[in-house]
Amino acid sequence: MKSYNDTPLLSAFNRVGNSVIQWCTPSIHMEVPRVSDIYGNDVSVSYHSLGNPCTNTGIFLAAHQLAAQAYGADYTLFSVNGSTGSNFIVLRALKRQLGKIKLLAQRNVHKSIVTAAEDYGIDITYIPLRYHNDLQIFIPNTIDEIVAQVKQYKPNVLLITNPTYEGISLYLPELIEKVKKINKNLIVFVDEAWGAHFAFSKKMPVCAMQAGVDICVQSTHKQGSGLQQTSMIHWKKKLIDYDSVLDSYTALTTTSPSYHLLASLDGARHFMQYRGEGVIDAAIERAAYMRKQINLIPEIHAYEPRELIRAAGAGRLQIDATKILLHLQGHSGMELSQNLEQKYAIIVEKYESENILLIMKLQNYREEIDNTVDAIRKEMRLLSNEKKIKFPEFPSVIEKKMPAYRAAKSAMQSIKINSAIGRVMAENIIPYPPGIPLIVKGEIFQAEHLQYLKALKKTGGLITVMMNDKTINTIIAVKQTA
Ligand SMILES: Cc1ncc(COP(=O)(O)O)c(C=O)c1O
């Protein structure tokens, strides 16, 4: 018999099982069709008559075609390295198809986009960020702002990260209509990591494929009933070349993808297609109930979906009401989420300095809501009264000196942050939360970045900063020639 120390991962994983209450991904309804015997059913591409996922043949092709129909695409591929891997596949495919890419993107891109663009020599122009400092969340650029940037920069690819982490979504049909009027050949790529369930309920924002987007990726494992790692790539054939996507998929997918994960995608698609609407709408109702209960507790506020939309401001927006954003009015989101995890085995999706985000998953049930609300009530009474850390504005200034891929190949040097103003970055700095790049390679370090980094330093670990020097004393800059 193995002891816990012999197999720390396996033992912990088996122990955790159902003993925690999770308000985080994956969202998988209890009745989703499942792989029946994980070890017994493990097969590989050597079983030739099944076809091959990497070449899109056999049962894999059949499952992809059913998914394309269900999600409103011309083509779909199942992917086993999350939207991270899917973003790499899509950018590589677009580069192969177009040769030169002029990519315009909102600033809230996932780090996989930043990295893939650098690796494939793709220059990104970022649309200046809209960050709501009171809500402490990223707010989508308005459609008019995006349209103005499309007119100014004349990109051949527009990337929209939609919805945001908190579920705020642009009304995509309007965006597509307006940008295609400017350039009917503009390829619109949507990172719909958080919208794998949108296609199946009228109460959800309009999904990318139904809005007329050319290509999108989704993390089916987030809220679409797939196992961890599962993702889909959907596209329309009008502007997207099948051979380029398949070439990229074949090149970047492991030659031994887990058939369990692929089968989980097939099961997820089937379940969402036939039962999605009912279970999503029920989750929305449970989320409304939970918000109501939480709003009876002093000093904590669960934003109603309409409040978020109003705060997000101008333009037509939609919202995923399964997301529950809590504002702690001066208390620390980290402190509450740590207490919930350590004392009650309640896991939240994410915390920020004064916020906590919960996801009402398809499988959460009423007793879990009541237990969590009770735990929050108890813990809010005990929370320290320590004053909140006041953050400066998240800088929206962007001044690009050169493409990131060029900065990455330049000679570099380490510079003390106090003397870094005006220097060209040779590293990306991404504070988490909010997980949005503060500055990326090729951009000029400004006084606002310095101020922000100094403020982060004072938070003493509340914010994880993805950068080379974890002590936040130095940055890596492109070396200046004398
Ligand atoms: C917008 C966005 N894109 C892509 C990803 C990567 O997704 P995955 O975890 O499926 O690799 C994430 C992860 O949170 C995300 O938020």
Q: Which tags fit this structure?
A:
3 domains; Ornithine Decarboxylase, Chain A, domain 4; 4-stranded antiparallel β-sheet; single chain; Aspartate Aminotransferase, domain 2; Aspartate Aminotransferase, domain 1; 7-stranded mixed β-sheet; about 475 residues; binds pyridoxal-5'-phosphate; alpha/beta
Fold and architecture overview:
With 482 residues, the protein is α/β, with parallel strands linked by helices. The protein folds into three domains: 51-269, 3-Layer(aba) Sandwich (Aspartate Aminotransferase, domain 2); 276-382, Aspartate Aminotransferase, domain 1 (Alpha-Beta Complex); 404-478, Ornithine Decarboxylase, Chain A, domain 4, CATH 3.90.100.10. It is built from 15 helices and 21 strands. It has helices at residues 8-16, 58-71, 82-98, 111-119, 143-153, 172-182, 208-211, 220-223, 242-252, 259-294, 305-312, 333-344, 366-382, 404-407, 447-458; strands at residues 21-23, 75-79, 102-106, 123-127, 131-132, 137-138, 157-161, 168-170, 187-191, 215-218, 231-235, 301-302, 317-319, 323-327, 346-348, 350-351, 355-359, 412-416, 430-432, 464-466, 474-478. The strands form seven sheets. It has a seven-stranded mixed sheet, with helices on both faces. It is globular and about 65 Å long. The mean pLDDT is 93. Residues 82-84, 110, 112, 161, 165, 191, 193, 219, 231 line the site of pyridoxal-5'-phosphate.
Give the helices and strands, then pairings.
Blueprint: H1 8-16, E1 21-23, H2 58-71, E2 75-79, H3 82-98, E3 102-106, H4 111-119, E4 123-127, E5 131-132, E6 137-138, H5 143-153, E7 157-161, E8 168-170, H6 172-182, E9 187-191, H7 208-211, E10 215-218, H8 220-223, E11 231-235, H9 242-252, H10 259-294, E12 301-302, H11 305-312, E13 317-319, E14 323-327, H12 333-344, E15 346-348, E16 350-351, E17 355-359, H13 366-382, H14 404-407, E18 412-416, E19 430-432, H15 447-458, E20 464-466, E21 474-478
Parallel strand pairs: 1-15, 3-4, 3-7, 7-9, 9-10
Antiparallel strand pairs: 2-11, 5-6, 8-13, 10-11, 12-14, 14-17, 16-17, 18-21, 19-20
Helix pairs in contact: 2-10, 3-4, 3-9, 5-6, 10-13, 12-13
The structure holds pyridoxal-5'-phosphate.
